[in-house]
Specification:
The protein folds into 2 domains: 121 residues, Rossmann fold; 73 residues, Thiamin pyrophosphokinase, thiamin-binding domain (Jelly Rolls, Sandwich), CATH 2.60.120. Helices cover 16% and strands 35% of the residues. The longest helix is centred in the middle third of the chain and has 16 residues. The two termini are 16 Å apart. The model has no long low-confidence stretch (mean pLDDT 94).
């Protein structure tokens, strides 16, 4: 099952919409976005400081302002509890850089569990690979960046780009993978061990990688 998490950050011009079988969770101020899109989320999660009120419709998980996890982190865990294995984080970047980075870590957490998670921003999408492969469709100018996250990543191979890699080892302290470019219809990225954060230009709309 796919879970869509609607946050209060920036959105692309064409917002990817859930199917009727998908789980929709509004994360604090993301409830306003859901209403604007005509969506009725099954669950609302947050301390609701950005929303400015406690929702009175549907199931609500109200959190204290002073807590260890972010609203998005709790919302993702609620999705896991309900059986989701693929996640689409919307409105998760474009505001505070600390929250954006925290959401990158949530992508890494999902990947470590064997789940699939994407964060869709205003012009870029992101995901984390953990001992797996991904084919990324070209969007816009085809910009693609990748970085080791949480430690070294080895066996990193990158095809279909201006600067390919073969069985490389990336350090989390080295920005070697910044600003590559997809030269064909798509690029293929694989990592044998460790985790790699991918960020790629979407173009006009988000297309799920394969």
């Amino acid at each position: 099952m796919t879970c869509y998490l609607f946050g209060a950050g920036c959105y692309p011009e064409q917002i990817p919409m859930p199917d009727v079988t998908d789980l929709v969770i509004a994360v604090d101020g993301g409830l306003t976005v859901c209403h604007r899109l005509g969506l009725s989320p099954q669950l609302a999660v947050g301390d609701f400081d950005s929303l400015g009120r406690r929702p009175n419709e549907g199931e609500v998980v109200a959190l204290p302002v002073h807590k260890d996890d972010t609203d998005m982190a709790v919302a993702l865990e609620e999705g896991v509890k309900r059986g989701a294995t693929r996640f689409v984080l919307l409105g998760g970047d474009g505001g505070r850089p600390d929250h954006t980075y925290a959401n990158y870590l949530l992508l890494a957490r999902a990947a470590a569990r064997g789940h699939t998670a994407y964060m869709v921003g205003q012009t870029y999408a992101s995901a984390v690979l953990c001992g797996s492969s991904l084919t990324i469709p070209r969007g816009g100018e085809g910009t693609l960046s990748l970085f080791a996250i949480g430690g070294e990543a080895s066996g990193v191979t990158l095809d279909g780009v201006e600067y390919p890699l073969r069985d490389a080892t990336l350090s989390p302290l080295d920005p070697l993978g910044v600003s590559n470019r997809i030269v064909g219809e798509s690029a293929r990225v694989s990592v044998r061990q460790g985790k790699v954060l991918l960020l790629w230009e979407m173009g006009e709309k988000f297309v799920f990688p394969s």
